[in-house]
């Protein structure tokens, strides 16, 4: 049975585009909605241009009331009955209660080789630590931030003259390869981790 996928975004949606463009032909999943927490998110127009329904649950009117925001998010998600939720640059931290409602069905991509560098500024932190490699991770979402079972990783070398921006560009290229590969496998019911060369 084809899995129904909802993608959550906050911005331009480059990982969303990679996911949408991969879900074609014999893919075991199909997109049913792209949902943003910002009505100005550039990814909304990109999703509509690909024929995918869009919705917005703007977090700002909730003025820091996360449970109320998440209740509205929950209502919108339930209306589309997703089997899988993909966080693709969704810049809101989700509460334990919300995550538990969807446990085992939410994926996230993070720009580091988890468990290293949870949270923000991952590329600067990798350079400051003089790491020789960096990369990205797709993982199942659990109540702990940037935690949960690793479903895939891709690595890139950290070059001697790297800046956080240059490193971020190379990692993002790998994110666009990794996330679609993990989604396909996950939709097929296979949760073994993928390591891309």
TrEMBL record:
Protein family per UniProt: Belongs to the GART family.
Keywords: Purine biosynthesis, Transferase
Residues given in the record as (6R)-10-formyltetrahydrofolate binding sites: 66, 108
Any one Gene Ontology BP term: 'de novo' IMP biosynthetic process
Function summary: Catalyzes the transfer of a formyl group from 10-formyltetrahydrofolate to 5-phospho-ribosyl-glycinamide (GAR), producing 5-phospho-ribosyl-N-formylglycinamide (FGAR) and tetrahydrofolate.
Active site: 110
Domain Formyl transferase N-terminal, residue spans: 3-183
Species this chain originates from: Roseovarius gahaiensis
UniProt protein name: Phosphoribosylglycinamide formyltransferase
Domain of life the protein comes from: Bacteria
Annotated site (Raises pKa of active site His): 146
Binding site for N(1)-(5-phospho-beta-D-ribosyl)glycinamide: 13-15
Keyword Metal-binding among UniProt keywords: no
